């Protein structure tokens, strides 16, 4: 997931508060702030904070704190303003800022470097700093593409997130597409509240992944006796075609539709997926979890008929004893299974994107599934022989 930062080091407190509030409402992850504002920011809501190590902002103004006081400030991330290197400086050398970063990181603090790239030496030094920093915040001016391409390539194997400053939606979209991978996040430098929300929303949407879904032909429909099934109620409203990937085997998961459809007998519940038996797998990003493990606050992955995903949050999990039904389907030479509640509101998704109730499914019908080659061990993919029947 791409991160959104908001720079709130400039202006009076009312201006800062408005920017931070707008960013938080759009799902921002971090705010870069003056150390003196951290206590006020905490009153606005839950968001990670970062401040410059010397307590000052980029213009040199800000809280009159010493380096030691700023180091102990209640910020999640400490930021160092890395100077522009001259032609006589060694881009591989250790500056006082880099030394301080290493010292603070050794104590367990999260550290970031703010680098204003105006020449090649500073870009090369940014790559050196990025090997220490947890976050590398880049201001690249008009030369946005080449320096970021070089840094993404140079730091690909290092555990650092590259964040670039952006002043518009266009700049954000460009930064997110560099080398196909894009930067890990953006630092919004706008004072326009609508633009802040627009940029933040675009960044969050860019973090969506996709799954390859294929049609599977139903070969078995069999009623079962009573079993314990799980309903997942989320903090998100789903739309027609959306649901979650669930199944009896990690090698193949069915797209189970949300209860978004209207019914003559039951009100629409677009926040719910009637997900199946307690033992079933649920795919969440690159891992699987048992339905019985889920609890309020857990992350889930919502997926639509085209395979596009988005994050969801569990609000409540309901486990109740209900009559069950077994479905078996064939796809790519594999027989996949899922056990679901026998009820009209429990639906799967057909290849055309429309939902079909489990009570109406017949042998020969096709539904969408996700095929995976590897098995799973504690939810993680493993390459070994695993047989699931």
UniProtKB/TrEMBL annotation:
Keywords: Amino-acid biosynthesis, Aromatic amino acid biosynthesis, NAD, Oxidoreductase. Residues 216-389 form the 3-dehydroquinate synthase C-terminal domain. It comes from the Archaea. The keyword Magnesium does not apply. It catalyses: 2-amino-2,3,7-trideoxy-D-lyxo-hept-6-ulosonate + NAD(+) + H2O = 3-dehydroquinate + NH4(+) + NADH + H(+). Residues 1-202 form the 3-dehydroquinate synthase N-terminal domain. Its EC number is 1.4.1.24. The keyword NADP does not apply. InterPro entries: DHQS, DHQS/DOIS_N, DHQS_C. GO terms for molecular function: 3-dehydroquinate synthase activity; dehydroquinate synthase activity; NAD binding. Transmembrane segments: none annotated. GO terms for biological process: amino acid biosynthetic process; aromatic amino acid family biosynthetic process. Belongs to the archaeal-type DHQ synthase family. Catalyzes the oxidative deamination and cyclization of 2-amino-3,7-dideoxy-D-threo-hept-6-ulosonic acid (ADH) to yield 3-dehydroquinate (DHQ), which is fed into the canonical shikimic pathway of aromatic amino acid biosynthesis. This is 3-dehydroquinate synthase. The lineage of its organism: Archaea, Methanobacteriati, Methanobacteriota, Stenosarchaea group, Methanomicrobia. The gene is aroB'.
């Amino acid at each position: 997931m791409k991160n959104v930062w908001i720079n709130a080091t400039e202006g009076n407190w009312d201006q800062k508060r408005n920017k931070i509030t707008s960013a938080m409402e759009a799902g921002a992850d971090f705010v870069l702030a003056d150390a003196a504002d951290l206590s006020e920011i905490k009153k606005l809501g839950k968001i990670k904070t970062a401040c410059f190590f010397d307590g000052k902002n980029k213009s040199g103004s800000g809280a009159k704190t010493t380096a030691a006081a700023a180091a102990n400030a209640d910020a999640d991330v400490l930021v160092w303003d890395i100077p522009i290197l001259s032609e006589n400086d060694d881009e591989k050398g250790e500056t006082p800022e880099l030394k301080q970063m290493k010292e603070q990181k050794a104590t367990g603090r999260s550290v970031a470097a703010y680098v204003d790239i105006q020449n090649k030496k500073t870009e090369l030094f940014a790559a050196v700093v990025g090997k220490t920093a947890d976050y590398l915040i880049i201001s690249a001016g008009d030369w946005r593409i080449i320096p970021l391409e070089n840094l993404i390539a140079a730091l690909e194997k290092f555990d650092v997130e590259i964040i670039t400053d952006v002043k518009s939606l266009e700049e954000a979209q460009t930064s997110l597409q560099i080398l196909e991978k894009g930067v890990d996040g953006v630092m919004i430098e706008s004072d326009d509240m609508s633009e802040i929300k627009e940029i933040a929303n675009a960044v969050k949407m860019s973090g969506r992944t996709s799954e390859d879904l294929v049609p599977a032909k139903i070969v078995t429909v069999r009623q079962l006796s009573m079993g314990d099934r799980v309903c997942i109620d989320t903090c998100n409203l789903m739309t027609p075609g959306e649901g979650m990937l669930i199944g009896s085997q990690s090698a193949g998961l069915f797209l189970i539709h949300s209860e978004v459809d209207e019914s003559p007998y039951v009100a629409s519940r677009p926040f719910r997926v009637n997900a199946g038996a307690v033992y079933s797998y649920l795919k969440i990003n690159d891992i699987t979890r048992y339905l019985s493990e889920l609890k309020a606050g857990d992350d889930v992955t919502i997926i639509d008929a085209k395979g596009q995903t988005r994050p969801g949050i569990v609000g409540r999990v309901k486990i109740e004893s209900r009559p069950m039904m077994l479905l078996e389907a064939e796809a790519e030479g594999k027989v996949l299974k899922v056990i679901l509640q026998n009820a009209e509101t429990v639906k799967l998704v057909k290849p055309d994107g429309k939902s079909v109730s489990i009570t109406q499914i017949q042998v020969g019908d096709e539904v969408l599934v996700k095929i995976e080659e590897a098995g799973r061990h504690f939810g993680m993919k493993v390459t070994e022989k695993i047989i699931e029947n």
